[in-house]
Write a structure and sequence with these properties.
six-stranded antiparallel β-sheet; 3 domains
């Protein structure tokens, strides 16, 4: 591995985006953008690169949210998806990460009362055995139409639940900016040729404890459009999910349940969909002769994106509350020279003077970005 330099295909903005979502491959620390005087280019590496010379980046897996606030968010989403009455029946399971089979069955009966009993039992066993909770969007029972047009039900678990199970057995990281599109050279190496009919993705994972590395590959037919296009889904996302799912299976082969289809929770909808009985995946539906009513209990999860002015309302005004800034910088282990160099590099302002003076040179938009950056780093550290 080596630092990622800006190039014709990788802009300074790309480096900044990668920095926010990845970590140092060697020590797991934050990343920063540096300037190479010899090459006259910016590059991305460990924030302590000048001392450690750590190269390579990896994407961290997210920790499970077991906080009280996380439980509140969970039940708020349950109310949005299933209504107030069902939420009242299930409030005792707020934030629960461990369910008995009987408790899981009670949740299934409330959320999906019309689902066949065998499917509810199977889903309840999955939840009890693997520490999953349908209220956290880990597991779904979805009404479908089979290829003959007959209504049936599918047992589905989400890719986020799969990531959760993998992370419980130890940390892992996503290498080489994966999941990403495979190069032609990679396709030839894996399959002996280039697949012109499919969008081909690769996911490369590393167990941070053992150092073991695995690869997963996923394809999506270029002629098929996936569900949820109006909600932001893409062919690339579907190929990416398939590659990541295979990589997680290979990383934790003993931890992954079988008999459940895998899906992206953001795009799970309701009826008029078809399960591919060969692969167990959600397939593109045949054109329907009549409109079918969607199951209102399965809706797109709310976006986590936050508008800049919402960020300003959520955290202190850095121009007025330097105490928050300094305490936050201590938590993320940013020294004053480091933050001033960061501001000079990213926002092109002079780093001369006190930290307050440097921040005062920022525009309102830049201050919003700085607040978001500090908050992101606090979130990654659990602060």
């Amino acid at each position: 591995m080596s630092p990622i330099y800006e190039s014709e295909t990788v802009t300074r903005e790309d480096l900044d985006k990668l920095r926010k979502k990845n970590q140092c491959l060697i020590c797991g620390g934050m990343l920063d953008v540096f300037w190479d005087m010899e090459k006259n280019k910016a590059f991305l590496a460990c924030h302590d690169f000048l001392r450690t010379q750590h190269e390579g980046i990896g994407k961290p897996n997210r920790a499970e949210d077991k906080s009280y606030e996380g439980g509140i968010r969970q039940m708020t989403q349950v109310e949005q998806e299933h209504g107030l009455e069902k939420t009242r029946q299930l409030i005792k399971y707020q934030g629960a990460t461990s369910l008995t089979r009987q408790q899981a069955m009670e949740i299934m009966d409330v959320i999906w009362p019309d689902a066949p009993s065998p499917d509810k039992v199977a889903a309840a066993i999955l939840c009890a055995s693997y520490g999953l909770n349908p209220l956290a969007n880990h597991v779904f029972l979805i009404p479908f139409k089979d290829k003959a047009g007959k209504k049936t039900w599918a047992r589905v678990w989400g890719i986020k639940a799969k990531r959760l199970l993998a992370s419980r057995k130890g940390g892992y990281s996503y290498l080489d900016m994966t999941p990403r599109l495979m190069t032609e050279e990679e396709q030839v190496k894996v399959w002996g040729g280039v697949d012109a009919d499919n969008l081909c993705y690769i996911t490369w994972l590393k167990d941070t404890k053992t150092g073991a590395e695995v690869y997963g590959y996923g394809k999506w037919p270029k002629i098929n459009q996936p569900y949820g296009l109006d909600k932001g889904n893409t062919q690339a996302n579907m190929a990416s999910i398939r590659s990541e799912s295979q990589a997680l299976d290979r990383l934790r082969p003993a931890e992954m349940p079988i008999g459940f289809a895998i899906a992206d929770e953001q795009y799970i909808e309701g009826e008029s969909r078809v399960i591919d009985e060969t692969t167990g995946e959600i397939a593109e539906p045949e054109p329907a002769s009549e409109t079918t009513e969607q199951d209102s209990s399965l809706v797109k999860e709310e976006s986590s994106a936050v508008a800049p002015d919402e960020v300003v309302e959520a955290v202190p005004d850095i121009g007025k509350d330097m105490l928050w800034v300094r305490e936050s910088l201590k938590q993320v282990k940013w020294t004053e020279p480091t933050i001033k160099s960061y501001l000079a590099n990213i926002f092109k302002v002079s780093k001369e003077g006190t930290l307050e003076e440097v921040i005062a040179r920022l525009s309102q938009e830049q201050k919003v970005r700085l607040v978001k950056e500090i908050q992101d780093r606090l979130d990654m550290k659990g602060g």
